[in-house]
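Example 5.3 — XRE family transcriptional regulator
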Amino acid sequence: MGSRNEPYEAPAIQTFACELTAWRTEAELTKTALAETLGYTPQWISQVESAKSVPSKEFAENLDTFFKTNGLFRRLQKRIIDTRHQAILPPGFAAYQEREVEASQVRNFELTLIYGLLQTESYMRAVIGHGLDPDTAERLVAERLQRQEVLTRENAAHAWFTLDESALRRDIGGPEIMREQLAHLLSLGERSNISIDIVPQIGKYYPGLTGGFTILSFSNAPDVVYGEIAGQGMLIQEPQIVSKFAVRYNSLRGDALRIEESRTLITEVMEGYG
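Solution (predicted C-alpha cells):
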C-alpha cells in the first residue's frame, strides 16, 4: 500500500491520520516543523494526515519517541498491517458490503468477469491473488466466500445475474478452473432464489457495454446501486439515478437468452475448456 490521490477509507489508516493531527496540533507544531524535527518532508506528513499514505513502522516508532505516547502509533501502525486486506478495497465497497448483507434482492450485470457472489474459490484466487501478497489474498478470499452466504442462508436474497458471454470465455486461471467455475454457475442456477442468464456475443451495441453494476433492494429501505471503474467504487443512493439503473438492467436483459438457452450456452463454453 503506497500513496494515492484519494484518502484510504480503512478505519485503521483514518485513525492513525487523526491521531497524528491531534498530537501535532496539541504540541503546537506545523507540519513543516514536525517534518524537520523527525527528518521527513512536509509533503509526507501531509499525506499521512490526510490518510493518503500508509505510515511505516519506523515512522510510527519515531512519533512514539517524539510525542512520548507509550507505543500508541506503533500499535496503530500494526493494526493497519493486520487489516491491510481491507485497505485495498475500492472506495465505497465497505459501505456496499454492509448493505449487501441486508438485501432482499440482488440484480447484477457483469461484462468481463464472473461476479464475486458466483465465483468458485479457485476462480477467486486467480482474480484476487494478482499482485497481492499471499496473506492479504487469503483474507480477501475468505471475506468473499463469507459474502456468498447472502445467496445460501435461510431467507436468502432473491438474485438475478446477467453475464456477457465474454465473461464466460475469458480464461481466468486455466481450463480446469474455468470448467469448475462454469459448472458452479449451472449448479447455482438450479437454486430457486437464483436466476442466471447470458447476453450472447451478438455483434451489436446493447446497454451493458458501458459496464457492470449491482442493484440491491430491501424490504424496508430504498434501492441502492454499486459500480466500479478503474478500481474506484461508488455506492449510489440518489433515487432518480438508481431508477435509471433499474431501467438499464431491464433493458439489457432484453438482449439476454432465456434461462434454459443460457444454461445451454454455459454448458457449451464449459465443454470447450476440455
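Remark. Residues 93-272 form a domain with the Endonuclease; Chain A fold (CATH 3.30.870).
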